[in-house]
Amino acid sequence: MTYSVINGNQLFHTDEGPTGDRAGETLLLVHGATCDSHDWSAQIGAFAARHRVIAPDLRGHGRSSGLSGGQRPREFAADLVELIDDIDAGPVVVVGHSLGGLVGSVLAVEHPSLVRAVVTVDPSYGFEAQFAPQLATAFRVPDPVASAAAILGGLENTATAGPEADALRVWHRRRILGMDPMTVRDVFHGLFDESAVALTVRPGVETYLARRACPVLSLSASASLKAKGIDGDWEESLSPHPYSASVVLDGVGHWLFQERPAEFNALVLGWIDGLPAA
User: Fold this and answer.
1) Number of helices followed by number of strands (H, E) in the chain
2) Structure letter (DSSP) for residue 38
3) Model-level pTM?
4) Would 53 be classed as within a structural domain?
5) Does 58 reside within a domain?
6) How many CB atoms within 10 Å of residue 242?
7) Separation of alpha carbons 99 and 121, rounded Å
8) What is the enclosing helix (H) or strand (E) of 205?
């Protein structure tokens, strides 16, 4: 089954890779805001060769329903809790990009028995205090889709030229343009309005992230860290588990796992292979 009814919504997901005695870890791949599970096209095959891989579309995104539901990180996490139970998948290693990195961290903090480890990929937290109200205001406009296209377009790696790089940028933009406007507005308000800053903005988010007791691997674009005013040591300092690590990549944009899939896959799989016993 590629759909499950989760909290009243049809949640699309795929479930691939070995099962039973042949299965390694169970990986839950969580995409970012205005994206969908297609983002992991360069990872699913490589990961599923050794591990069970579950790749959902979050509510209101991709092929999942949920236009009338909440679009906040805790609501996305609640859906994934139900999905993990519905398909008997826990505990999982959450691999989350952008919003997905925050959702994975919410799972680790608030549902620790379900999470073996977290891999955050250019996550949507760690911002300076003045950044949040500016972003929230940017989506209080008649056309929040245009705001999303402009803001996320600014996170692309424009230094790399060629047909493949151009195609990635076009794909990202067109997917945003196909989103329901109110879903786009609600997703970004769920990250940056007054009630959300404890999960996204320093210093409050530092206290929250430090509650992740499991191993955490952080993979970030150096440009993203610079824009936030932090470095790779910041996240590693918030992860109490001794196996936690932080990797910073130069010359990439926000979708670094799509730009350098072979390097990304090797880093993640190698780290997962070394996870200490549960």
Assistant:
1) 13, 8
2) G
3) 0.96
4) yes
5) yes
6) 8
7) 9
8) helix 204-209
Cis, bond preceding 142 (omega within 30 deg of 0): no
d(C-alpha 6, C-alpha 254), whole Å: 29
Q: Cα–Cα–Cα angle for 136, 139, 141, nearest 5°?
A: 130
Q: Which of 264, 273, 262, 237 is nearest to 116 (CA)?
A: 273
Residue span of the structural domain in which 158 resides:
3-273
pLDDT tens per residue across span 14-62 = 999 997 777 789 999 999 999 999 999 999 999 999 999 999 999 999 9
Quick check: 57 and 13 in contact, CB under 8 A?
yes
Residue 160's CB is within 10 A of a number of other CB atoms, namely: 15
Q: How many CB atoms lie within 10 A of CB 132?
A: 18
Euclidean distance between CA atoms 46 and 269, whole angstroms: 9
In this structure, what CATH number is given to the domain that contains residue 139? 3.40.50.1820
Residue 278 located in a structural domain: no
Domain count, the chain: 1
pLDDT tens-digit map of 135-183? 889 999 999 999 999 999 999 988 888 899 999 999 999 999 999 999 9
